[in-house]
Amino acid sequence: MEKLEELGKKVRARRKALKLTQAQLAHKIDKDRESISRLERGGVNPSYLYLLELCSGLETTLADLVSNS
């Protein structure tokens, strides 16, 4: 669960850096806002495809999103 929470924090930080709301990010990647909210809270274990869509919406790479730094 700790890793999912870390991922959620990175997603939230990147989204905010891009000045996107959860709804705007969700629209960008064809997801619902609640899905983004659950992900940011560490409440969902996203699939590989979801992660790739998320990276596209957040304008980042998968490596950056899941790195330990």
Please, could you describe this protein's structure?
The longest helix has 16 residues, at 2-17. The chain is 68% helix and 0% strand. The protein is mainly alpha-helical and 69 residues long. The protein is globular and about 25 Å long. The protein has helices spanning 2-17, 22-28, 33-40, 48-58, 62-66. The chain contains 5 helices and no strands. The protein has one domain: 434 Repressor (Amino-terminal Domain), CATH 1.10.260.40.
Q: State the CATH architecture.
A: Orthogonal Bundle
Major beta sheet summary: none
Number of domains: 1
CATH topology: 434 Repressor (Amino-terminal Domain)
Question: Which secondary structure elements does this structure contain, and how are they paired or packed?
Answer:
Layout: H1 2-17, H2 22-28, H3 33-40, H4 48-58, H5 62-66
What features would you highlight for this structure?
434 Repressor (Amino-terminal Domain), about 70 residues, mainly alpha, about 70% helix, 5 helices, about 0% strand, single chain, globular
Short description:
The protein has 69 residues and is mostly helical.
